[in-house]
Design a protein that fits this description.
With 119 residues, this protein is an alpha/beta fold. It has one domain. The protein has one helix and six strands; from the N terminus they run E-E-E-E-E-E-H. Strands 1, 2, 3, 4, 5 and 6 form a six-stranded mixed beta sheet that branches. The relative contact order is 0.13.
Length: 119
């Protein structure tokens, strides 16, 4: 996964089968709830601990996040998905319109050639 940080730019994080993904809970954030790697969705604010490998990638030992942050990221994703679908549909419609315009241009060109030949 790629993390966008405030001070270091983008950081590539390698998740391994041994990476521990936890949702921290409680007033002091002392309790944790183990989560699946699939809980790591775009927009989720996380805290990653690990070591860098030879490719300058952060190999994650633990990834922690707050439950509120997960809910916020899920809400954002819920709003983004319909927008992406709409954009994709608009793009398809634009392509169809461009194809129709090209077909009309060719038909017009043929009509102009026919008129020129008849004159």
């Amino acid at each position: 996964m790629t993390l966008q940080t405030q001070d270091s730019g983008n950081v590539v994080v390698v998740l391994t089968p041994s990476t521990e993904v936890d949702e921290v809970e409680g007033l002091l954030k002392a309790r944790k709830k183990e989560m699946a790697v699939t809980a790591l969705i775009p927009g989720l604010q996380v805290q990653v601990q690990g070591t860098y490998n030879a490719q300058n990638q952060l190999v994650a030992d633990t990834v922690k996040f707050k439950g509120d942050d997960l809910r916020n990221a899920e809400d954002i994703q819920a709003g983004v998905a319909p927008t992406e679908q709409l954009a994709q549909a608009n793009q398809q419609q634009i392509q169809q319109s461009e194809q129709q315009i090209q077909a009309q241009k060719q038909a017009l060109l043929q009509q102009q050639q026919q008129l020129a030949a008849e004159e």
